[in-house]
Amino acid sequence: MKQEQFVARHQREWVEFEIWLRTRAETRRAQDERNTGALGDDAMPQRYRRIAQQLSLARRRGYSPQVTARLQEMLEHGHQVLYRTAPVRWRAMLTFLMADFPRLVRSEAWCMGAALVLFALPLVVITVLLQYRPELIHAFMDPMQVAQMESMYDPANPRIGRDSGSDWYMFGVYIMNNISIGLRTFASGLLVGVGSIVVLVSNGLTIGAVFGHLTQIGSGGPLWSFVCGHGAFELTAIVIAGGAGLQLGLHWLAPGRRTRGQALVEAGTKGARLCLGVVFMLLVAAFIEAFWSSIASVPYPVKYAVAAVLWSGVCAWLWRGGRGETKGRDAR
Fold this sequence. Notes:
The protein is an all-alpha fold. α9 runs parallel beside α11. The longest helix is centred in the C-terminal third of the chain and has 34 residues, at 220-253. The chain has twelve helices and no strands.
């Protein structure tokens, strides 16, 4: 086959492929942000393979450099479009954590406030009450649990908050324990919100009992120095998970003009996104708890100073995160 016949036969599909490549180049940025990986035309992979075959034929038959260069350029561009590695969505993840998640938390301010009261009030009341009625600890824990707790926070213990286990082992234990509590606090909101209330109050009572008893027997120093750091993420995450569960129950009870199913889907979607942020916070908390909080050799003032930075950072993140971005979008 002569070159002129070869070009005339395949010219149309070459032009179509080139047009498709230009269109893809124009929309590539938007597609990266969506990270769908979808192709604009299902026929294009097959067409790409046909052009590869045509390039091989053109070279074997000794066609002009103009024809082979055109085919080579299409193949190279097509390979970049069709087979490029999907980009890692670090920017989208970072945007969600730094801006979208704090905005979600603030959008449910009433539910978050209610969750904070349900969790913190029992905690404070029991902590204070046990300073005057120490025998009440047995209403919350059996003697074996009390003895284990006292051993874990004994001032002579070289690793505060644990009896045994390496840092990495405890990191895994803390992840499993914390995330299970967080997800249970959210998911129990399906019980018309009552489940989240029960979990928040029971956790507040249990933690208050630990704080109150250990403070009363003189082990408050090791306990507070242990909790103060990772508590900025862990305790806040529990409250947020509880708030997510409460908004789930609230949408069930008062769906407004939507059907109850629609309200639950909307609340469940928002709750799931809140739980993504909660999981991130609990991962950070587990890391701090395993590798920092348990070190008994660090002086208490240093632990408290680091805790002050962590608490300030978490509060600033949740209060200010995404505000500037929202104003920027409104201005545009």
